Amino acid sequence: MVSSISDRGVAKRIFLSLLVAGTVLIGPGSLRAFADANAVIGMNNEGVKALNAGNFALAIQKFEAALQMDKGYQLARENLAIAHNNYGLQLAKSNPQEALKQFHQAYYLNKTNATTAQNVEGIIRMLGKDPRDFKTRIAMADQARKSGDFIGAIVEYAEALKIKDDPKTHVNLGDVYRVRDNVDDAIKEYQAAARAGDSAEIEVKLGQALQAKGDLPGAVAAFGRALGFNPTDSDTLDALQAAWEDALKKDPLAPDNHIGLGQALQFRGDFGGATAEYRQAIQLSKGNNPTAAKLLAALPDLIKKATIDKHINNAADLITKKLYVPALEELKLALAQAPNNPDIWVNMGICYQQQEEYQKAIDSYQKALQLDPRNSAAAEGFKACTQSLQDKMIAQSEGAAGDAYKAGRYDEAVKLYSALVTKDPKNAAYYYNRGAAEQMLKQFDQAMADYNTAMGLDPKNKTYSNAMESAKEAKVKPMIDAAVAKHQAKDYAGAIDGYQAALAIQPDNAPLWFNLASAQYAMENYSRARDAYQKALEVDPKGQIDDLYLMAVIDEHYGKGPVAQGEYLKYMSQAPNGKYAAAAKERLTALNRGDAPQKIKGAAELAAEKDADDAVAAAANLNNAGKTEEAIAQIQKAISLQPKVADYYAVYGSYLQKLGKIDDAMAQYKQAASIDPKNPKNKEY
């Protein structure tokens, strides 16, 4: 909303613009209107008194009464304009919308008054609108027209046309003039509309206005131009017939009027009425009217054409309603009378096309093209139906291929999809479907080749990439199963070959990399095992996190203590509850306190450890059974297998001590202490 300060500023500018312009009777102290000494002038003088007294409503009433007495009294007209203008000034602040109506009235009465024009623009700005915007003025005009304020509509449409010459606006302004019975101005606006952008509607309105004025020749000419835009327009035909009937009323004996009415009836399809009018024209011309005779002679052909057109139009109407069977019946009736009409053949093609009878449609379009090689509708229809027929045949082939696949006839499905690939080698779905059938036949290499082609044609389709992974998994599964069996049988070399062959097909299979690493580890090829563990970790960082610990173990084996420390620490942070969390913590603690890196125990060493542990367990059982001599033999075996285990010597010493061989026992205790001097138990001995 405009602020009160802005309102006062606008109102002041309106008032000052009137003062500068020198318009009379703008308020107290302004110039006085002139008055004469007769009855009409007396009424004008009463209006002047009311105007000078600021009673603008009464002044308007008096000036309008004076103009009713004498419509040509210019002074009353000028004073009426001033009254409306000053009334608008009075209302500007309290009721700007009503003020606008008063300014409209003033401007309509005196369109040359620039001050009033400024006041109109000023009050529009007070309403928060742009008076220089075409759409704004049109919206205001439409609103005024809708509310019955035709003067306001006239002013606003006229001002909009100053901004933009628009045929529709000329028509709207002409319509308002017609409502006010201002036929001459309406005609001018319709003519201006025709110059700006003619149409059947404009010519009909112009013809009606000319007819209302009594200009029948001009009206008939306008209706003729309207028919040029739309020969079947019912409003135009009605207007043309009415114009000739009006002419005939004025001069019923003029042959030309009968010819004109006959043509109007002929345009409407009333051939009987046209015949009667042409014959009447000939009779009034005493049997000699070449124009009427020519028109009468042409009627049989026109009737035949009209009959054909009727069938064609009926068919067209039925086609729009998608009633193709009855439409074809209408077209066949038309075709019986005009077999060489390409339009009929085109419409028949459309009917067959919509019913998916593509071969019949193609035949119809071809017939139309034989009759008219340049018929674009026939050419487009022929092309579309040819493609549709091919698509239909392909769809049937697709259905047959799909049915064969669902029924488990995979060989047949492969053949059918291969035929489809030949027809459309860029259709990714065909390669995918053929690949699926090949996969079911365990033809994995062929399936993967087709999936790969499908992925190349449609890279964003996840279905194809998923199918490729499925085929790879299916191909490598027996390879992996065989490799795992060899692994379990400790045929590590064979297992490694199998894992590597599977990885060549499925390089992103993290468990495969882990299995390969495990086999290499078992063969004590720790360097390659570490590489395989690392690859598994790269492929699946979360699922293969335990591989990080195993990598650290290998790095520690090769004397890379700091590297191993970092890996143990990283493993513990990422897998605090992991499988090897406790072992990692133990090794990290050992390395942090300066212990030497730990070597990996090979298979032979692990076997020796197991045999030694078994011997110790056997010794313990014998000793408990009171067979200490036999227990000593078992502990000696354990020491021979694992001579660096301090606990074995301590156990040996305890057995000797039990037998009373103190010196020999002491020697074994000393040996235990020398091997593990930090163990407090060894110091006790």
Write up what this structure looks like.
- The chain has 685 residues and is an all-alpha fold.
- It is 78% helix and 0% strand.
- It has 35 helices and no strands.
- It is elongated, with a radius of gyration of 55 Å.
- Mean pLDDT is 87; it is low at 1-37.
Describe the SSE topology:
Blueprint: H1 4-21, H2 39-52, H3 56-69, H4 74-91, H5 96-109, H6 114-126, H7 134-146, H8 150-163, H9 167-179, H10 183-197, H11 200-213, H12 216-229, H13 234-250, H14 255-268, H15 271-284, H16 290-320, H17 324-337, H18 342-354, H19 358-371, H20 376-406, H21 410-423, H22 428-440, H23 444-457, H24 462-488, H25 492-505, H26 510-522, H27 526-539, H28 546-557, H29 561-574, H30 581-592, H31 603-624, H32 628-641, H33 646-658, H34 662-675, H35 680-684
Short synopsis of the structure:
The chain is mostly helical. It is 78% helix and 0% strand.
Q: What is the CA-CA span between the terminal residues?
A: 106 Å
Given as residue ranges, the uncertain stretches (5+ residues, pLDDT < 50) are 1-37
Beta-strand content estimate: under 5%
Q: Please tally the helical runs, counting DSSP H or I stretches of 4 or more residues.
A: 35
- Total beta strands: 0
C-alpha Rg (nearest Å): 55 Å
Largest sheet: none
Structural class: mainly alpha
What's the shape? elongated
Mean pLDDT: 87
* Proportion in helices: over 70%
